[in-house]
Every structure is written in structure tokens, then in C-alpha cells.
Amino acid sequence: MSTDFKSLQIENRVFPPSAEFQAKARISSMDEYKKLHAESINSPDTFWAREASELTWQKRWDKVLDWQPPFAKWFVGAKVNVSENCVDRHLTTHRKEKVAILWEGEPGDTRTLTYAQLHVEVCKFANVLKAQGIKSGDRVLIYMPMVPEAAIAMLACSRIGAVHSVVFGGFSAESIKDRLHDSGAIAIVTADGGWRRGKIVPLKPHVDTALSSGESNVKKVIVLKRTGQEIAMQAGRDTWWHDEVAKVDANCPAEGFDAEHPLYILYTSGSTGKPKGILHTSGGYLVGTYCTSKYVFDLRDDDVYWCTADVGWVTGHSYIVYGPLANGATALMYEGAPDTPHFGRFWEIIQKHKVTILYTAPTAIRAFIKWGDEHPNKYDLSTLRLLGSVGEPINPEAWMWYHTVIGGGRCPIVDTWWQTETGSIMITPLPGVTPTKPGTATLPFFGVDAAILDEDGNEVGPNEGGKLVIRKPWPSMLRTIYGDAERYQQTYWSTYKNIYLAGDSSRRDEDGYFWILGRIDDVLNVSGHRLGTAEVESALVSHPAVAEAAAVGRPDEIKGQAVVVFVTVKAGVQPSDALAAELKKHVGNVIGAIARPDDVRFTAALPKTRSGKIMRRLLKEVVAGGVVKGDTTTLEDFSVVAALQASGKDDE
Ligand code: PRX
User: Fold this and answer.
1) Which of 126, 222, 542, 615 has the least C-beta neighbours within 10 A?
2) In-domain check, residue 211
3) pTM for the structure as a whole
């Protein structure tokens, strides 16, 4: 049986950028995009050398790329300091007094840091790290709330060549312990706590628990005071950020490091087993995040740019800290939850700070839709000029809502496909160029040679599904899995020789646009027909009663797999048998009888990772009737799974 599949989703809506947006954009015609893309693929050295030349190098490279598959070295022989590029580079320009970080705490407190002020803070904290004995190459774990000091700590590490590993502030002591063990970190930067949904999220106590077994290499813990509650401090090991900063000066020259010097390790969950430590290095990552931020967000000096991700995720690394700051942008950072103290908090922030670019995730967009239009409608969102989406396929109806209710029909949407591993955006519209269609990330970015292959490694035809791959190395690519080159090779480079396997299934439409159909492991196989989870889910979300949906396969003797869908409904809608029947019919009408769900289960919430991705793997275990035994450490709220298991029993 062929494992390739045909897409059944049809999308005819097309939204070209407005003439006004296009006229002002850096890249403003499809011809220009095509010319530059061809150059970036055929003469990558020329393209990337030109982009890199816009940045500050203490020594220029001898060679742009050294590719010994699957190991790449970019800007070979160059010396660079990433923090110098994100901060110092702007001090000799008009950007010196421009706001670099515009911060809003959940309780409503705000702070601004100009590039000049950020420079002082980064240099001081770099000196604190040095005073604590931290040297180039040492690993430092950062476990912080969304406060400016999280970015300052990252930049201070990069300034002295220390390798940071940021652990999302919502993760447990156990997750910290695993990451300490794997990275061999010798210091932790943390805070007493952070504010989320009106409550203190304790951080330092989790660090204490993680360190209590005494198995780590950690010698120093530096603690920022944010929430002010009583915490334990261990003499000799723990010190306060403010005490240490008071002891140092702001003189910390930026040393040049090899372009391939490690910048950070970021852990991401594999489908099974222990999290993978994705290693990014300095020069190529800097160039990749700089270049994508510049072109994809079309950054201008008067933009107020807001990426709503947490710095604990790659999106926060690349598109709150490194990319925007390398461009001298004003980056807004918000500490808290989107529903605190009310459902309009995001829109209030946009109105208050006159945000011009908003970059958020489909999971958030679906939550906003569920909460109702009256919340955004209360605020003035007219400063917005560009919207972005990342993290999951965006359901076409969620895209339409984002376009009309948030974007007022005037803002281009950049649906950006990329991964922790890719370091920067890979498939995306260019906002002044690409006619967008709801639900597709459209075309490859410069330097990205993306394709869709079948099992035999041949490119599939239009609208046929297959595996998404990248055929050429790119500057911000991961260099390895930390401490496990074998797993790196196996996971990404062994399915097809010397070709990067992204792990997503995808199709290309007749315009060459890429549609992500879901993770390879999640693809449904019904009576020999392969269906992407994203297609079934988007069909459900296009029904007016549905807020969010997840589709999984249940083993079925006759069909191979039966389609089971989990559905959350919009505020005010009552789940019922009649609605379930209607939804089955609706999917049948939208995609075809083959995709018609066998079982519709209503649920108050779907199990998600902390970064908001639906965990279909757990739902698969729930429908298979067994106990959920897979790794659930990244799950946001286990009670969601417990409730589904309990309800599943009555439901069968
Ligand atoms: O499945 C794709 C999905 O998220 C995966 C990468 O997740 P992570 O490493 O956590 O990075 C998220 C932030 C870049 C991808 O393999 N994904 C991400 N963006 C999109 C997407 N799926 C469809 N469309 C997107 N725009």
C-alpha cells in the first residue's frame, strides 16, 4: 500500500498584500523574491556573505560554509560576539536612546530599557557571571519569569561565551534536574517567582528541589527578586542578583568568539524518550535570526514589535531576543497570562503600547475566538500593521478570524513554519510580496531548499502528501543534539541520505505553497487513505460551534484506523448527540466521506504541551483504551487527560 496521500482540503481564498503595504516593504515583488531565492540556493555563499556583512564581525570569515554532512560549519574562521551585535552595535547609531525592551508585568507594572541601558545591564550581569567563576564554554541554566532580566541573562552569557540553557518557568523540578544532568550546567540564574493568573509561580523552590539530591555540578545560584515572598537561600551557593550587580562595574568588552562557538542548548521533547538538547552556535544563528526578522517582519524603526512567546521556547530566543535586538527593534515583553485580569488583556496591551506587529500562536488565537469578539472589539487595534502565527498549523477559520477581527482586514499575516531545530523561520510569506491563503505557510525563505518526498525519496506531485525535508544546510540549523551526535544523525539525517527530515507531513499546492498536514507520527490511515490531522481538525473548526479540535486514529479491525475527534465548543454552545451527528456530517461534506469521524467526543479542554501544542499522542492512548503511560512531563495539565480517560469509559 502506498504511504503517500492526497489532500482533500480545498482553500480558494487568496489575500494579496495591499498596495500600500507593498509600496513600503523591503521586498516588494514576487520577481524580487524569486531572484533572491534562486541566488540563495544557487550561490549561498554570495547571498549569506552579503547578509552577514550587515553585522559586526571581529574577524571576517575565511569561508562561508564547510559542509561535511550532516555537520555544518558556517562563517568558518570568523570571530563574533552575539551580544555585541544585539546591543553595542546600536550604540553608535540613532538607536542608542531607542527602547530595546518594553516590558509589562502581569500586575500592570511597566519598564523600558533603551539600548544604552540594556548595554549597562548586560555588561554588569556579564561581570557578575565572571565574578562567580563562569567562563567561556560553561553551561548556565536560566529558569526565569518573563522579565527583562531573562533576556539580560541570555545576552550576558553570550557576551562571555557561556552557553545558556533556558528552561521554561512552568516546568517542574524534575525537568530542571534532567536538563542540569544532560547539560552539566555549573550555575543557575533564577528568580523567587513570577506572576501568572494573579498568583505567584514559585521558581527558586523548584531549583532547590532539583538540587536537593546533590547530583549536579551546580556551584552557584543567582536569584532575582521579582515577587518578594520569603524563599530559602543556601549560604555559599545562593546569591541575590541585586547584591551581585551592586559589586561590579559596567565595563565588559565584548570578546570575539569563533563563529561556531556554542550559543545555547534548548531542550525539546522527542516523541519518545528523554528531551533532546538542541545545540545552536553563534555566527550562523545570529545571521539567520537577524535576516528572517528583518524580512519576515519587515521591521522598521518605528515599529513596536510584540512576540507573545515565552523566552523558554525557541520562538522567545529567536524572535524576542536575538533576531529583533540584532535589528535594533523595540521588542515588547509581557510577563503574564492573556486572560488576566480580563479576557481583553492582550488587546489592552496593544492599545496601550501602540503595538504595530503581533506574533502569536494558533492555540492562543483559538482561545480568543472561544472567549468572544467583544473583548478585542473594545480596544483600538488600529496601530497593528502586520500579524504573525507560529507553532502549529493555523486552521483556516482561525486565520480568517485573526485577519478580520484583529487585523481589521488590512494586516498581512505571516504564517511562519519552523522548529527549535531550524533556529529561524523556514517557510513563510514575505508580507509585502506573497499572496496569502488561510492555513498555509506558503513559500520557502531565502536559503531554504524545502521539498516533499515519498517513501522512496522522490518528490511528490502537486497536492500529494509526503515528508517535509530540507535539502541544503542553512546558517541557523542545529549543529547537533548536545552530547549525542549519533541521535542527531539518526533522527534527522538517516531517513534520506544527507537530507534533513523535519518530522512533519506536508503537501504543496498548485502554486507551490506548503501546507503542513501534521506530524508524521500522527497521520491517520483510514482504509488505506492517509489523512493529515490538520485537515480533519480544520474542517471541524470551520463549523461555527467548534472552538478547537484534535483528530486521532483508533485501531480498527476493518478500516485499519477509525477517526476519533476531540472537540471543544465555543462559549454558549451546548454539546449534544445532535451536534456530534452534525459535526460528523460537516466533516464529510468539507473533506469527503473518508474523513467522516467515527466518534466525536466533547471535552472542556485538550491536552497540550506547555507551549500550546495539542498532544495527540496522549489522546491516541486514551482512545486505545489503555492507561496513558508515555512521557507526560511536558503536559500542561494532567487533569485534562484524567478527565478524558474517565469520560471515555462512559462514552464507548
Ligand atoms: O509541526 C510543526 C509545528 O511545530 C513544530 C516545531 O515545534 P517547535 O520545535 O516547538 O518550534 C515551535 C516554534 C517554531 C513543527 O515541526 N509548527 C511550527 N510552526 C508551524 C507548525 N506547523 C504548521 N504551521 C506553522 N506555521
Assistant:
1) 542
2) yes
3) 0.93
